[in-house]
Amino acid sequence: MKRLFTRKSPLVLLLLIVAWSLIFGLGMARALAGDTMVNKAMVNKAIDPVPNELQLAQEVYLEKCGSCHIALPPETMPTQTWQELLQNPQNHYGVNLDPQLISADILVMWNYVRQFSRSLEEEEDPPFRLRDSSFFTALHPKVEFNQPISPKGCVSCHPGARGFNFRRLSPDWDEDN
Known about the structure:
The protein is elongated. Helix 2 crosses helix 3, helix 3 packs across helix 5 and helix 4 packs antiparallel against helix 5. The protein is built from 7 helices and no strands. Residues 34-46 have low confidence and may be disordered. It has helices at residues 2-33, 37-45, 52-66, 79-87, 103-116, 134-139, 154-157. The protein is 50% helix and 0% strand. The protein starts with a helix and ends in a 20-residue tail after the last helix. The longest helix is centred in the N-terminal third of the chain and has 32 residues, at 2-33. The chain is mainly α.
């Protein structure tokens, strides 16, 4: 009888490890997603479809970036800019980011922005300001900016920007503008 128990031990141990891994993984997913009101509001108002496998990544991006400023759509900056911003979080436009922004969060956010941003041409330098981004300019072909371009100014034309809805425009902008 003792021999039979010894043979089942590795199987039981393997099952316990798998169960523990699943429970730990679910707990980490919940922790990364957070349960904040800002996070839920932003994700619920997002318009562009996000594949299921990137929804958690979008939530982390919106929560972490949107807690300090308007979270910009990844399309507004090239992949190379996002990569530099996420690889060097200690130099984020002159501000040191919260040390609680752990590398797991950065990796998750990178998966999201990489999917929705575009690559630069080979000889083009990555822009680090909206005003210098050819992608931002391409997304705003008929707009003349009277004030400096910054994420704060997005709300004047995109009243849903704080909720990550950049498709809704203010009444001043219709399909003819």
